[in-house]
Write a structure and sequence with these properties.
This protein has helices at residues 42-54, 71-78, 93-105, 118-124, 139-147, 162-165, 170-177, 187-205, 232-239, 277-282, 292-304, 314-320, 328-336, 357-365; strands spanning 7-12, 15-20, 61-64, 85-89, 111-114, 127-132, 149-159, 208-218, 221-230, 242-248, 253-257, 265-270, 312-313, 341-343, 350-353. By secondary structure, it is of the alpha/beta class. It folds into 2 domains: 7-291, Rossmann fold, CATH 3.40.50; 311-365, Phenylalanyl-tRNA Synthetase, Chain B, domain 1 (2-Layer Sandwich), CATH 3.30.56. The strands form 4 sheets. The protein has a 7-stranded mixed β-sheet with strand order 5-4-3-6-7-9-8, sandwiched between helices. A 3-stranded antiparallel β-sheet has the order 11-10-12. Helix 5 (139-147) links the parallel strand 6 and strand 7 (149-159). Helix 1 packs parallel to helix 2 (71-78), helix 4 packs parallel to helix 5 and helix 8 (187-205) packs antiparallel against helix 9 (232-239). It is globular. The termini are far apart. It binds S-adenosylmethionine.
C-alpha cells in the first residue's frame, strides 16, 4: 500500500490510521497540516466507539460528515459490530485521500468514502446518524444535520467554541446561540446546557423533539449525542424542559427557573438530564480503546452525576467562607448525611447537590 506524502502510520484504539506528520497533539485543535488530526480527541472518538457498541445499529446508515482523516468514522466501523454502513465524508480533496487510504488500510467493507460539502450531501439523502465535527462552532451546520437525520435518528455534535458559550464572550453567545451567558464558576455547564437548548429549539422549528443521550464537556470542547423524534408533541415536550439559571455573582446564589428575569437570568438552556441512563449503563469500556482509563473515569462520574442543572465547586464554597477547601471525601461524607451529593464531570473539585446554598455553606462551615 502506498503511503501518503507527509503522513505517518499510527494506531488509535484498534484501528490503524495514516495521519499527517504535522498534527495537533493537544489543545483546541488548530489546523496544523492541511488535513486535520488531533491526538487528544482520541478520547472523544473512544466514546463514539462505545456508544455505537451500546446501541443496536443493525442495517442502519451513519454519516461522519466532517471526517478529516476519517479517524472517527473508520474507528466506529472497525471497532465493534460491523452490521451497518458508515459514510466518511470531508469537503477537502486532500482529506479524501486519507479517508480512502484509511478505509483500505483496515480492510473495511462497511465504510464508504465521500467528498462533498456536508450540507449538499444531507440535502440529497438522510442518515440514521449524523456526526458534525467542525472547527469552532457547529451553528452553520446544525440545520442541515437535523434535516438530514432520519426519523428517530441520532446527532453527534462537537463544539469547540467554548468561550462564547461559557460566558467569556457573552455578545457572541447571543449572536450565535440566541442565549445569554455569564462568566461564573459553573460556566462550562452553563455553556453545555445553552448548546443543548439551542439544538432543542432548532429541532422544534421542524416539529422534532431532541433529547440528550450523552452530553458532556472535556478538555476544550462540548460534545452532544442527541436523539431526535419527528413529532410535534415530542418537540413541545423537549421545549418544556428549557428554562433559565438565575445566578447572583455577589453571593453565588443559583437556581433553575422556567421564568426569565431580566436582571439575573441566563439562558434559555436545557434544564433536563444530560444523559440517557439506560444507554450509559449499556456502554462498556472495551479493551483496546485509546484512553481506557479516562473512559472508565468519565463513565463512572456520568453514572452518578445528579440531574441538577448546575454544580458548585469546593474551592468556590471555601473562598466564600474565607477558608481552605476541605478534602473532597470529607465534604462528600458531611453533605451526604443531610442531602444528595455527587461528583460532576466538569472539574475534579466540582460537585452537585440538592441542598440550597445557605444549607450548603452552613454545613461546609463546620468542616473548614
Ligand atoms: C475538526 S476537523 C474534523 C476532525 C475529525 N472529525 C476527527 O475526528 O479527526 C473538521 C473537518 O471538517 C471539514 N469541513 C469543513 N467544512 C466542511 C463542510 N462544509 N462539509 C464537509 N466537511 C467540511 C474540514 O475539511 C476538516 O477536515
Amino acid at each position: 500500500m502506498s503511503e501518503i506524502e507527509g503522513s505517518l502510520r499510527i494506531v488509535e484504539g484498534r484501528t490503524e490510521l495514516f495521519v499527517p506528520i504535522l498534527h495537533s497533539s493537544r489543545g483546541p485543535g488548530k489546523r496544523q497540516g492541511r488535513v486535520f488530526y488531533n491526538e487528544q480527541m482520541a478520547f472523544n472518538r473512544d466514546l463514539s466507539v462505545m456508544l455505537f457498541n451500546a446501541i443496536d445499529f443493525t442495517g442502519k446508515e451513519a454519516l461522519d460528515s466532517m471526517a478529516g482523516t476519517g479517524a472517527r468514522g473508520i474507528r466506529v466501523a472497525n471497532e465493534g459490530a460491523r452490521d451497518f454502513t458508515i459514510y466518511v465524508n470531508d469537503s477537502s480533496e486532500e482529506a479524501l485521500q486519507y479517508i480512502e487510504r484509511n478505509i483500505e488500510l483496515n480492510n473495511l467493507d462497511n465504510c464508504r468514502a465521500s467528498n462533498s460539502d456536508m450540507r449538499c450531501l444531507l440535502s440529497n439523502r438522510p442518515f440514521d446518524y449524523v456526526d458534525v465535527d467542525p472547527f469552532g462552532t457547529p451553528v452553520p451546520y446544525v440545520s442541515a444535520a437535523i434535516q438530514g437525520c432520519k426519523r428517530n435518528g441520532i446527532l453527534g455534535i462537537t463544539a469547540t467554541d467554548t468561550a462564547p458559550l461559557a460566558g467569556t464572550h457573552p455578545k457572541k453567545c447571543v449572536r450565535r446561540y440566541g442565549a445569554k451567558s455569564v462568566r461564573c464558576t459553573f460556566g462550562h455547564e452553563l455553556g453545555l446546557r445553552i448548546l443543548v437548548g439551542y439544538l432543542v429549539r432548532k429541532a422544534a422549528e421542524l416539529d422534532m423533539g431532541a433529547k440528550p443521550i450523552l452530553c458532556f464537556y472535556a478538555d476544550h470542547y462540548f460534545r452532544l449525542y442527541m436523539r431526535l423524534r419527528a413529532s410535534a408533541l415530542e418537540a413541545d415536550r423537549s421545549l418544556d424542559q428549557l428554562g433559565y439559571i438565575r445566578y447572583r455573582p455577589e453571593d453565588g446564589f443559583r437556581s433553575f427557573s422556567r421564568e426569565y428575569d431580566c436582571t439575573d437570568s441566563y439562558g434559555p438552556l436545557w434544564g433536563g438530564p444530560l444523559y440517557d441512563r439506560t444507554i450509559l449503563e449499556s456502554m462498556e469500556v472495551h479493551d483496546g480503546l485509546a484512553d481506557r482509563t479516562r473512559c472508565i473515569k468519565y463513565l463512572s462520574i456520568w453514572k452518578e452525576e445528579l440531574d441538577v442543572p448546575y454544580f458548585y465547586d469546593n474551592d468556590e464554597i471555601a473562598s466564600m467562607l474565607h477558608a481552605s477547601p476541605p478534602p473532597m471525601d470529607r465534604l462528600f461524607e458531611k453533605l451526604g448525611e443531610v442531602g444528595k451529593i455527587s461528583r460532576a464531570h466538569f472539574s475534579p473539585t466540582a460537585f452537585k447537590t440538592d441542598l440550597n446554598l445557605t444549607d450548603l455553606i452552613g454545613i461546609v462551615s463546620e468542616i473548614v
